[in-house]
Task: structure prediction
Amino acid sequence: MMDRPLTDVVVIGSANRDYLIRVEAIPAAGETVLARSLTNSCGGKGANQAVAASRLGARVSFVGCVGDDADGALLLREMRSEGVDVADVEVLHESTTGRAFVSVDDAGENCIAVVSGANAKVNAAKVRRVVERSDPQSIVVLQGEIPADTVAEAVRSAQPRRVIVNLAPVIALPDDVIAAADPLVLNEQEAATLSGVPVHDAESALEAAAALSPAPTSVVITIGAGGAVWSAEGTSGHEPVRTPVAAIDTTGAGDAFVGALAASLSHGNGLADAVGFGVRAGSYAVSRPGAQASYAYYSDLVPDLV
Result:
């Protein structure tokens, strides 16, 4: 599956220091609970997706911002150790590195609060320059944890490169930016927010994909244990989880999916195959704790290929 010539993957997005809190149940509003543990790890949707793609054989560069602090230095060291090119990461002397506070319950579900820090200063003009000098065959990957105007500038300057827009969290983007996404990647909640169609299974996910307006070039909607659906050029499909796993921690699983999707596309695979590969990578990640630490290498997923 991964024996074709590589295309570069340029990930533009966030880098955070994650603070992971393990609890029996996510607290309700006004409720205080006792946590079992607190651990630190490397995260941020952009950095996560870059590491996930690199571990799966893609040639990856990351574009973003960190603060001039210990957290930022650690994130850069870790991405370098994962084979990610960080030459275009800007270190901001008057900002702190982004931080994410993640609570994970006994069912593996999570809730996350992010303090953007330096991520809020990823500059549209710089991103445009980086994208324009990248290989015209590159795949550009974006998320919603950096300013909307930067995402829009990146998408517009990326043409004719293929652009994956993972709209997580959902931010307001111009119609032409959404229309250029190939694919637009959403989870159930994000798809419901944008389409107005409640998503709870593959059938309703495909209904939501068809209801998106403006319509992206292609769309992928992840549905947790149900796998993911895709729609492009009048065709659509469902890629289920082939080997069910017990979820330990869902933190960063969506990023594992997007990174694997980008890696597969970078090797010349079609969207359906890439979505299937992403589902396998996401399933692998939820069976292990943490975000980047839980991500598969290609050798981890090869035995599962059918």
About this structure: The chain has ten helices and 13 strands.
